[in-house]
Amino acid sequence: MTNADGYRFDPGFLVDHLGELAGGLVRTVEISAIGMAGALVVGALLGAVSAFRVPVARQLVRVYVEVFRNTPLLVQIFFLYFALPEVGLRLDAFTVGWLSLLLWGAAYNVENFRAGFEAVEAGYVEACRALGFSRLAAFGQVGFPLGWRIALPSVTNTQISVFKNSSFMIAISYPELTETAVNIVAVSFRVFEMFLAIGVIYLGLVWLMSIGTRAVERRFAIPGGN
Amino acid sequence: MRSRIGLMVLAVALALTAGCSDSGGDGGTDNGPAGAPVDVGAPLPGNVKDRGKLAIGVKCDYPPFGYIDEAAKNAGFEIDVARKLASYAFGDGNDVELTCVTGANRVSFLTTNRIDLIIATMNYTEERAKTIDFTTPYFSSGVKLLVPKDSTITSFADVAGKSVISTNGATASLWLTQCMKDVKQVLFGQTSEALTALKQDRGDALAQDDTLLLDLASKNPDLKVVGDSKAGSPWGMGVRKGDTAMLDWVNAALKKMQAEEFFWTEFQKTVTDPNLQQQFAKFVPRPGNDLSYPTGPTLVC
Hints:
The complex is a heterodimer of chains A (226) and B (301).
Chain A (H helix, E strand, L loop, with lengths): L12 H4 L1 H34 L5 H13 L3 H11 L9 H27 L2 H9 L4 H30 L12 H12 L2 H29 L7
Chain B lengths: L1 H22 L22 H6 L2 E5 L2 E2 L3 E3 L5 E2 L1 H14 L5 E5 L5 H6 L5 E3 L6 H6 E3 L4 E10 L14 E5 L3 H9 L4 E5 L2 H9 L5 E5 H10 L3 E13 L2 E3 L3 H16 L2 H9 L3 H7 L21
C-alpha cells in the first residue's frame, strides 16, 4: 500500500520489534499494577477519612486531593523526577513511574469513594447505631460494603486513566510501551504501523479491564438495588 | 470602567503585535531589508511559491544551532540558514514558518507534509536516506561524551556496561544501539532534560554531537567533553523522498551560500569562541571546501 507521498504500509516490520514491544508492555503493566493497587487502597482509606469527617486528617486529605487534582500529571512527574533531586531526594524512573500514578489516581479515588460512602442511605447506618454498633463497626458492616459498590463505576474510570497515563513516563525516559514505540519509530520511521500497534495493545488491555470490572459489578451487585 | 479595561487590552495587544513585527526580523543577521527574490539557479517549487512561506522544521533545544533565545525567539546557525533560504525564495528572511522538531519526530513532520524541509542538526545516515532525501551537507560533526569534571571516564570504552544519557532518535543513540549494546541508554526528548539528568547523576555520561557538548561544557564549568569522535558524518537538510523540485532548489541555494561564504560568516557570528571556531573550521562548507557524504554505512563501530 503506497500513498501519494510514498509512505508504504509495512506491518511486517513490527515482527522485528516484538521483543522490544513486549518488554515495554511488561514495564507498562508493572508500574500500572503498583500504581492502580496503591490508588485503590489509598483512595478507599482516605475516602473513608473524608466521609467520616475525621478532624485534621480530613483537612489534610482535602489539601492532598486539591493539589493533585488541580495540577497536570506531567508537572507532577517532572516535579518528582527532576525537582526533588534539587532538595536531596533522588528517585529513579521506575519509582517515579508507579508513585506518580499512585498519587494521581488516589487523589481521584478519594473523591470517588467519599461520594460512594456518603451515598449510602443514612437510615441504614442509623439502624446499625440503634442496634448498638459502634460508628466504626457500622461503617465496616454496612457503610463500606454498600459504599464501595456504589463507587465502583467511577473508581473503574479512574483506574483505567491510571493505566493509560503510564504513557506519560516517556517524559522521564522510563522504557514503558509508548517510550519503547517512540524509540523504535526514531530508528525505523514506521510511524503509522507502530502507533496503530500500541493503540491496539492499549485498547485491548483497557477493554479486558472493563470486562473484568463489569463482572465484579455483577457479582457484587447490591441485592434489590441500593 | 469596562471600556477602559477594553482600551488597555487593546493597547497591550497592539504593543505585542508591534513587538512581534519589530523583532520578528532577522535577529541581527545580515539578511538585509526585504527585497526581491534571488534566482539561485533552480526554480522555487510551485507549492512553496503559492504558500508564500517556507515551512521548515528546526531544533529549539540545540544551541548554538537551533534554540530559543532570551527574547523567546528562534535563534542559531541553522535558523540563520533557514532565514537566508526564505530571503532567496521571497526576498524576505521572515517569510519562513519555523516549527520546533526533535530527533524523534523530525522525519515524521516531513513525511506527513507538516514541513517542507528539515534543518535540524541531522546527520546523514544510510537508514535515514532510505526514508527521506538529503540535500548537500552544510555542517559536520561526530558523537562525543559529556561527563562531570571529576569523572574517570575518558573514552567510549569506559562507558561499557554503564548508563549513558542521550535524546530520542539522536545519532548518538543510534550509534550506541548498534555498537555498544551493553550500554543502558537513558533517553529524553529535550537536551535540557538530558543535561539535567546528567547533573543529577542519572547516567554516567551524556552522548551527543560534539558541537552541542562543547557549547554545553563552555556554559557548565563542572562538565567536560571526552572521547574520540564516533559516527562522524555531515549534516544535511531533509526533503521528502522524491521531491526533486525542492531538493534541486535547496541544493542550488546551498551552493550559492557556500560561494558567498555565508556559512563561515554566520558560524563565526554564532560561535564566537576562537578556539571552538578553529575546531570546526573544516566542518563548514566554504569556497574550496566541499563537504560530502560518506559512501556506505556511517554508524561504523
